[in-house]
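Researcher: Let's do a round of design. I'm pasting the structure tokens now; please hold your answer until I've finished.
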């Protein structure tokens, strides 16, 4: 059986079920898309990897369009997330960036005022033009029912990579700067607020119908710093976007934010709160406004594992959030070793009511 045989048509008559849900309406069964749905677990993705390095794939519209569309073709996901990366932003401002096999991103770290001065925020709109071009092609080519998702990293998470110079378990250098040279760290955050807001606004003008802010590392911070460096910058970005594009919903993902996710939802103005794996969906549902859409939160490991346990857990999450706007998704990205047929089984289970 090919994977496409699992996908049944949407039972709803809404034109774009995902967009409708993000705007605060319940759709049943809930729309589904997955973080990192374009990725190495797909053979057609691995075939494209041989053709160009990662940054070239992000910045070549034909390739980025193809990689965005692959999971839509295979699974008829309700959302198509732009193929790009959160680190494109510091890179277009002039910070050196390479994706090293087996190591991940490597950047020339920003540790001083002088390092920061080397970045040019005025280059962002021009230098991300290929990304905007990718989105405008996608807006024309995607099926009518599919919602096109733009994205960026949150200022704190992008700052983590910029200061640390790459991935880390604890981002110790970054948090040290935050405590020892708060004015410099705040300047980096402020630069990222302005440029992220401009970049997302350009993504929307090019055709993105919603945008998501990935805050992968905000959960490292204690409450006071979480308010200052996660909630407040996110609030400023949402305020800017709301003024420019009042009807475009914003999804916020304060990963591992714990109980701070409630305050994040309340103060930032996001339309949708994306939940990590550790958050109990029904508990958080009782703590946030009923119009706020929730997104998530299946454990990617359960998806990788597959079988009856996957069907059971997916159905449980779906049913537990019935009665409020819910977008079915994972609590983090699809893992590389995930069998593609498990994703088909998941989509089928969520849609089969
Ligand atoms: O070809 C490859 O294998 C490169 C792997 C890869 C991919 C497929 C990277 C490098 N980025 C991406 C695409 C990507 N990244 C998307 C595309 C759309 C989709 O979801 O299908 C998105 C939304 C991201 C977002 C992203 N990049 C985040 C936030 C979400 C998360 O995972 O927490 C983060 C932290 C990054 C940085 C990054 N880029 C790539 C890697 C391996 C990493 C993580 C580095 C680390 O901390 O170790």
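Researcher: That's everything. Go ahead.
Model: Designed sequence:
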């Amino acid at each position: 059986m090919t994977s496409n045989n699992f996908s049944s048509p949407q039972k709803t008559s809404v034109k774009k079920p995902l967009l409708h849900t993000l705007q605060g309406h319940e759709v049943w069964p809930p729309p589904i898309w997955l973080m990192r749905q374009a990725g190495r677990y797909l053979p057609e993705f691995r075939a494209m990897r041989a053709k160009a390095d990662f940054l070239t794939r992000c910045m070549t519209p034909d390739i980025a369009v193809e990689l965005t569309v692959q999971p839509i073709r295979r699974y008829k996901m309700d959302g198509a997330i732009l193929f790009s990366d959160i680190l494109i932003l510091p890179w277009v401002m002039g910070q050196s960036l390479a994706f090293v096999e087996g190591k991940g991103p490597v950047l020339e770290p920003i540790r001083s005022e002088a390092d920061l001065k080397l970045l040019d925020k005025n280059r962002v709109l021009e230098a991300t033009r290929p990304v905007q071009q990718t989105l405008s092609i996608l807006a024309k080519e995607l099926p009518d029912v599919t919602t096109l998702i733009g994205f960026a990293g949150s200022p704190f998470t992008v700052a983590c990579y910029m200061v640390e110079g790459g991935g880390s378990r604890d981002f110790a250098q970054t948090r040290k700067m935050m405590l020892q040279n708060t004015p410099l760290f705040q300047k980096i955050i402020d630069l990222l607020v302005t440029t992220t807001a401009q970049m997302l606004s350009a993504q929307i003008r090019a055709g993105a119908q919603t945008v998501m802010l990935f805050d992968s590392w905000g959960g490292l911070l204690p409450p006071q710093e979480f308010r200052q460096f996660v909630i407040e910058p996110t609030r400023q970005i949402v305020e800017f976007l709301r003024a420019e594009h009042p009807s475009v919903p914003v999804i916020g993902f304060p990963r591992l934010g714990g109980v701070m996710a409630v305050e994040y939802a309340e103060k930032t103005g996001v339309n949708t709160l994306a939940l990590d794996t550790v958050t109990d969906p029904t508990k958080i549902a009782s703590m946030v406004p009923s119009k706020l859409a929730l997104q998530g939160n299946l454990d990617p490991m359960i998806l990788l594992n597959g079988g009856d346990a996957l069907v059971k857990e997916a159905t449980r999450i779906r049913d537990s959030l019935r009665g409020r706007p819910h977008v079915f998704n994972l609590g983090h990205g699809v893992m590389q070793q995930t069998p593609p047929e498990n994703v088909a089984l998941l989509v089928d289970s969520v849609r089969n009511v």
